[in-house]
Write a structure and sequence with these properties.
The chain is an alpha/beta fold. The protein has 2 domains: 219 residues, P-loop containing nucleotide triphosphate hydrolases (Rossmann fold, 3-Layer(aba) Sandwich); 59 residues, Alpha-Beta Plaits (2-Layer Sandwich), CATH 3.30.70. It contains 11 helices and 14 strands. The strands form 3 sheets. It has a 6-stranded mixed β-sheet with strand order 6-7-8-3-9-10, sandwiched between helices. A 4-stranded antiparallel β-sheet has the order 2-1-4-5. Strands 12-13-11-14 form a 4-stranded antiparallel β-sheet, with helices on one face. A hairpin with a 2-residue loop joins β9 and β10. The chain starts with a strand and ends in a 6-residue tail after the last helix. The mean pLDDT is 89.
């Protein structure tokens, strides 16, 4: 396990900011960390990185406690909190060389490693241009290159898609998936872009008012309950309320939706056939991560 947060708490004065935050990330996983504004996402990230003190609980990275063995715990971590900073008048290559010089000789961040990460993030053709000429998406790529120079196995990104256009967001998604798959990096992404979280991540953790309300796979997170919503197309929905005991949502004269377990569908079809209702199509109604998130958190209300 790369990252473990166990019963993490943060109190400032009399105000409880975080309460028993618990989740973990394994090698090669991409976890989305989502919640309403003010829920505690950035505070959690700062505790993980040792940028703020932990009131109680534990953060372990690669088995090392962040409080007891800070240097060993943080050694294999790369991060971008908010926006990456660069010397704008220097080239992307020179910025990376400066960052490489900050590490110890035994870390072996030589010219070969710099060129390796440049290729990995896809900046080969523009790496010698001044950063001032880079688009926001290119700066984000350079920031990730900077963050993975020392071969971390945990990458933490806070709002990485802020300000990116659709093409930049897509490029970032492809890059992160590549890092997780090929480099086996565990990635934690805090973002408000739920559509992109759904497309990029393998699991999510939802935080609300400083507490975790769910930590699971993307597919499980999209389920409002253990049942599934089915959309059913028939020749006539007029008898459906009677057959379903008014539990169906009639969309129009041919389509209705109903929330039930998979095993119950066969019984429903049998009832409809007995009433001479012709069934044309049955499909699962796909709930987006955004819909599920809003229902589980009660919208964007901050308490």
């Amino acid at each position: 396990m790369v990252l473990e947060c166990n019963n993490l708490c943060k109190r400032i004065g009399k105000k409880q900011i975080l309460n028993n935050i618990t989740f973990n990330i394994n090698e090669g996983e991409i976890m989305g960390f989502i919640g309403p504004n003010g829920a505690g996402k950035t505070t959690t990230i700062k505790l993980i990185l040792g940028l703020q003190s932990i009131t109680s609980g534990q953060v372990k990275i690669n088995g090392y406690d962040i409080k007891r063995n800070f240097e060993k715990a943080i050694y294999k971590v790369g991060s971008i909190v908010e926006n990456p900073d660069f010397y704008m008048y220097l080239s992307g290559y020179d910025n990376l060389k400066l960052s490489a010089n900050l590490y110890k000789k035994e870390d072996k961040i030589d010219e070969n490693r710099v060129n390796e990460v440049i290729k990995l993030v896809g900046l080969e053709n523009r790496i010698h241009d001044k950063v001032s000429k880079y688009s926001l998406g290119m700066r984000q790529r350079l920031g990730i290159a900077q963050a993975i120079l020392h071969r971390p196995n945990l990458l933490i990104l806070d709002e990485p898609t802020n300000g990116l256009d659709p093409e930049g967001i897509k490029d970032l998604r492809i890059l992160l998936s590549k890092l997780a798959k090929e480099e086996k990096i565990a990635i934690l992404i805090s973002s408000h872009n739920l559509a992109e979280i759904e497309n990029t991540c393998t699991k999510i953790t939802i935080i609300k008012n400083g507490e975790i309300i769910e930590s699971t796979s993307i597919e499980n997170a999209k389920k409002i309950d253990q049942k599934t919503i089915y959309e059913i197309e028939v020749d006539d929905t007029s008898k459906i309320p009677e057959i379903t005991g008014n539990s169906a949502d009639i969309m129009n004269k041919n389509i209705f939706k109903i929330n039930m377990e998979k095993e119950e569908i066969a019984d429903l079809v049998e009832k409809m056939v007995k009433q001479n209702i012709r069934v044309y199509k049955i499909s699962e109604d796909t709930t987006s991560l955004e819909d599920a998130f809003l229902k589980k958190t009660g919208g964007n209300k901050i308490v």
